[in-house]
């Protein structure tokens, strides 16, 4: 699964604090990476101005300025990228090649003469890119309260333990509530008269009269929209009706989910890979229909809820929560994809769900590396915490707390770099 970006574009080494604050808030709200994209303009029509742009690149001043930029919220992930060329072309190309939620650009004030003679970069990009373009500027800070940067005091073991346990409990509770709600929603729809009647009419031939089929499709489409689901499927024996090409590929996780559905009557799955899609992930909720032979499924984008809940910023810069299955396979995003990329553990531009085991980097083949302390204990269904320190999946000393969610068969860890916790 690819990472999502909020792109903050600059063409000169200057940035108003209000624009930085705006971009930070938008990235945090979208659980996206804030990318500082600085483009040194190289336009064929600029003539002599191209020489000054070249000198600017050669001096390294722009790169030095760019690398000093950081979000106003320490919990927001961020990266830097510097490029040269026609700014409109550079930004449009990046948007095409990556999953960009929106672009933020600071436009300097212009008078009516300049407005009538040319369009600003933001105005030109609106016509070129598929994502929203937000124009920043000094006015933003007037509409929001000032940001207060907290002063972090050194923490003791007891405080760190309380903090980690509170965070992991809160994230687990939020996940469980959402998954319970999704399963309950599937149950209520499966119990509706239209679904039960359609299943009864379709047995045993597996076909429906056109009028009944239209009613079924209309009602389930409406339920899917109300639930913010991206697809649904109703199985009757070997036959199925459905909407949305979002059903997952066959996998052990899908098989375990189906066993749980038939055993309990309803459930919600862990993130599953979408069939024929390299980066797509869905979460299914399902309920058995009255006759016990049919199942109703709803599919949800994993990013919208499951990954969003786990990816929220925490109280310390290196804090993160993530989920993993019984085999130790990570189910959510890592806060440190660049670290994993440099270590050769993750392909460029991709994230960790269903790709990385929560294992200590060790000698020998990756698949033989031992699970980290948190993953090892959680997969044994032992809840706990550790404030002395242990190695995480990056090989970095961390402190953490972990829980096993037995209802759904996955674990959640809340961790922070040990140095960061006690600094």
Provide a compact summary of the structure.
By secondary structure, the chain is α/β, with parallel strands linked by helices. The protein has 15 helices and 15 strands. The strands form three sheets. Strands 6, 7, 8, 9, 10 and 11 form a six-stranded antiparallel β-sheet that branches. Strands 3-2-1-4-5 form a five-stranded parallel β-sheet, with helices on both faces. A four-stranded antiparallel β-sheet has the order 12-15-14-13.
Helicity, as a percent range? 25-40%
The 3D shape can be described as globular
Largest sheet: 6 strands, antiparallel
Q: Tell me the total number of β-strands.
A: 15
CATH class of the largest domain: Alpha Beta
Helix/strand-derived class? alpha/beta
Average pLDDT, rounded to a whole number, is: 84
Do you know the CATH architecture of the largest domain? 3-Layer(aba) Sandwich
CATH fold annotation of the largest domain: Rossmann fold
Order of helices and strands: EHEHHEHEHHEHHHHEEHEEEEHEHHEEEH
Corresponding CATH superfamily of the largest domain = HUPs
Descriptive overview:
With 423 residues, this protein is α/β, with parallel strands linked by helices. It folds into three domains: 4-142, HUPs (Rossmann fold), CATH 3.40.50; 174-301, Beta-Lactamase (2-Layer Sandwich); 314-422, 2-Layer Sandwich (Beta-Lactamase). Helix content is 37%, strand content 23%. It is built from 15 helices and 15 strands. The protein has helices at 17-30, 49-59, 61-67, 87-97, 112-117, 121-126, 139-142, 157-190, 193-202, 210-227, 252-264, 306-310, 337-342, 373-379, 418-422; strands at residues 4-10, 33-41, 78-85, 99-106, 133-136, 231-236, 239-243, 266-268, 272-273, 281-288, 294-301, 320-325, 384-391, 397-405, 410-417. Strands 6, 7, 8, 9, 10 and 11 form a six-stranded antiparallel beta sheet that branches. A five-stranded parallel beta sheet has the order 3-2-1-4-5, sandwiched between helices. Strands 12-15-14-13 form a four-stranded antiparallel beta sheet. Strand 1 (4-10), helix 1 and strand 2 form a beta-alpha-beta unit. The radius of gyration is 25 Å and the shape is globular. It starts with a strand and ends with a helix. The model is unreliable at 47-55 and 110-118 (pLDDT under 50).
């Amino acid at each position: 699964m690819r990472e999502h970006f909020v792109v903050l574009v600059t063409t000169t080494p200057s940035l108003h604090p209000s624009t930085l604050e705006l971009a930070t808030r938008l990235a945090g709200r979208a659980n996206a990476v804030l990318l500082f994209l600085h483009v040194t303009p190289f336009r064929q029509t600029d003539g002599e101005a191209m020489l000054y742009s070249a000198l600017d690149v050669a001096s390294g001043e722009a790169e030095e300025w760019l690398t000093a930029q950081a979000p106003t919220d320490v919990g927001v992930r961020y990266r830097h990228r510097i490029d040269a060329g026609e700014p409109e072309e550079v930004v449009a190309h990046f948007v095409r090649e990556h999953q960009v939620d929106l672009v933020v650009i600071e436009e300097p004030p212009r008078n009516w003469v300049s407005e009538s003679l040319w369009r600003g970069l933001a105005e030109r990009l609106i016509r070129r890119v598929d994502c929203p373009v937000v124009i920043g500027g000094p006015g933003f800070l007037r509409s929001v309260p000032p940001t207060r940067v907290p002063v972090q005091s050194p923490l003791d073991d007891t405080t760190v333990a309380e903090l980690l346990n509170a965070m992991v409990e809160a994230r687990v509770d939020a996940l469980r509530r959402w998954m319970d709600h999704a399963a309950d929603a599937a149950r209520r729809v499966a119990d509706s008269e239209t679904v039960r009647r359609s299943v009864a009419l379709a047995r045993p031939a597996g076909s429906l009269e056109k009028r009944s089929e239209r009613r079924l499709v209309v009602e389930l489409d409406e339920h899917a929209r109300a639930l913010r689901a991206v697809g649904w499927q109703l199985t009757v024996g070997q036959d199925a009706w459905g909407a949305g090409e979002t059903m997952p590929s066959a996998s052990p996780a899908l098989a375990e989910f189906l066993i749980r559905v038939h055993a309990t009557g309803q459930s919600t799955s862990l993130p599953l890979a979408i069939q024929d899609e390299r980066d797509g992930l869905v979460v299914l909720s399902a309920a058995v229909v009255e006759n016990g032979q049919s199942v109703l499924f709803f599919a949800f984008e994993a990013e919208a809820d499951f990954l969003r809940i786990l990816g929220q910023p925490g109280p310390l810069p290196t804090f993160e929560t993530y989920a993993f299955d019984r085999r130790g396979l990570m189910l959510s995003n890592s806060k440190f994809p660049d670290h994993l990329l440099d270590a050769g553990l993750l392909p460029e531009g991709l994230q960790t769900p269903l790709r990385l085991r929560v294992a200590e980097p060790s000698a020998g083949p990756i698949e033989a590396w031992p699970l980290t302390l948190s993953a090892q204990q959680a997969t044994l269904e032992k809840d706990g915490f550790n404030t002395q320190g242990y190695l995480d999946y990056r090989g970095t000393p961390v402190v953490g707390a972990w829980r096993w969610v037995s209802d759904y068969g996955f674990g959640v860890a809340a961790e922070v770099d040990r140095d960061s916790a006690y600094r």
